[in-house]
Amino acid sequence: MKAKMLEENVEMMRRGITRPTEIEIELKKRLEQLTDRLIQKQSQVESLSSEKATLVLRIETVSRLLDEDELPLQSTDLAQNSDATGSFEMADIESGIWRPSSSSFQPVIIRDKIRAGRRQLGSVLQQLDLVFSIGMVYLRRNQKAQVLAFLYLLCLHFWVFFILNSSSHISDGTKSGAVFSLETINNTSNP
């Protein structure tokens, strides 16, 4: 009789340990929400700190140019630099580069376009990083998603292996399927 009572008590204790209570479930959900919010805030802090560093660099460049008296402060100074043909030098305050309007300084314009492209690429990379961070949080918490992601990657690798090792029936047999496919794409894109 006592043995049965003790076994029942042990069994109830095991069930109590293995089954979380309603409060524990609520706390786990809240912890997951706070973790997600923390990751989002960390991403925002990183992007704001990189933007701050960029702005500090620009301010330092402009202040250095102003200290060296290389940058005209008023529009009258800019008008005094104009020549007889009407072309005048313009100051690019953000990058600290003097840029005449003539076509002899095209590399400066190209450099400005490259800088703008780098900024856009940096913005795209930050957005992709945020998306992948959120995806990793989801994968970390969802076992089914982990298995599906693993199966997807496995199938993707098998498919790439198949494409790279398959031979084309149309070609002479010395080229792989991937090489033939690339040649076909190149031939169709060229008029």
TrEMBL record:
It holds the Pfam family Golgin_A5. It is found in: Golgi apparatus membrane. The chain crosses the membrane at residues 145-164. One of its GO terms (cellular component) is Golgi cisterna. Residues 24-51 form a coiled coil. It comes from the Eukaryota. Its main location: Golgi. Keywords: Coiled coil, Golgi apparatus, Membrane, Transmembrane, Transmembrane helix. InterPro entries: Golgin_subfamily_A_member_5. One of its GO terms (biological process) is retrograde transport, vesicle recycling within Golgi. This is Golgin candidate 2.
